[in-house]
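Two records follow; treat each independently.
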Amino acid sequence: MKFTYPKHEKLKSQTAINLLFSEGKSVAKYPLRLVYVENPNAEEKLQIGVSVSKKYFKKAVDRNLFKRLLRESYRLNKNLLKIDSEKKYSMMLLYQTKDRLSFEEIQEKMILLFEKFQKETEK
């Protein structure tokens, strides 16, 4: 499997994002939260976006750092997301704390979060 995060996997559609936050479900593993919705109109099997709140990090430099860490962690662990071929998902990863976690800690939480997501979608 390729460990890439190509452009077609990035969540950019405003309608998909609105659908995500109006009808989406979420799973959390502190300090990460994954909001997801099954989106049959999506072009890809999986589209994902990342977000870090201005509430916790006032400086854009800090927000961008944690967004980069989230994207990298997703890129390295996306093989854990085993999704049925007929289902398509839109997802948003949210970093929800003032704590400055290391990349290793974020990666551990991301793995636990993806495992929790797998259990939720198998129900």
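The next record belongs to a different protein.
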Amino acid sequence: MARRAAPRGWSPAVETFLEMMAAERGAARNTLDAYGRDLTHVEAWLAGRNGSLETAGTDDLRGYLAAAAAEGVAPRTAARRLSALRQFYRFLYAEGRRGDDPTAVLDAPRRGRPLPKILSEAEVDALLDTARDRDGPEGLRLVCLLEVLYATGLRVSELVGLPFAAVARDPRVLIVRGKGGKERMVPLTEAAMAALSAYKAVRGVFLAAGETSPHLFPSRSQEGHLTRRRFAQLLDETAALAGIDPAKVSPHVLRHAFATHLLDHGADLRSVQQMLGHADISTTQIYTHVLAERLRALVETHHPLAGN
């Protein structure tokens, strides 16, 4: 088998390391390029401080990671660069070119949890208004889906798979079977109850003659009910007609909007947790970070001293 050459143009130390990765570990060209770029970036930073990649100590590398964080380098990128450094120094140690590994006691940067995408209340209203413009049973079903989702924050699988029995008892609440088979009761808004009532009057249109279905949203799909994919398609179409970028909208984004808007209007975190069906309240707390980020952006944009 022909030896896979390492990329050229790196410093001698980096090039030797990349040649080892290519020859002994069969690293792909893209992998070698990525390692080379990351190591060269660190090398340049160290050189600007009269240091070198081969002789750098733990404090030097810790300083690099701190500087990267201060410059706004994404934690994922910083973690990738640290991974490249670990590989590099292990290679130097194994080759006897260093007697220690300066990355051994370095912690990987915390990646953090990305904040969920959300829609403004005006955008949700625009989606609902656009859905109401759709005629016939398809339109009534779409309005019902959106009103129920925004009123309850259901997971999309819970929404499309709702049994008809979930709304046959008390019209003011939904009985939802979520993850792990756990049941929870979620209250419905007046708008959601009205949309459900209007949809149930035409639900039979989605059934073949003489057919019955245990599902609230029956269809001829293999599952027997409206699929997640079809609902996502309907949502994309509605967003486009409403003048909202479809890439910004999904069933899960509406679940996020439900939670964020509730908290924005004073709901307590524990109640939102129960309605969302989160087993751990720490999962729900992500929405408090969304609100904090929105407040920060509001202050930075509108505070009279923000431009100073």
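Discussion point: The domain at 12-94 is CATH 1.10.150.130 (DNA polymerase; domain 1). How would you locate this feature using only the token line?
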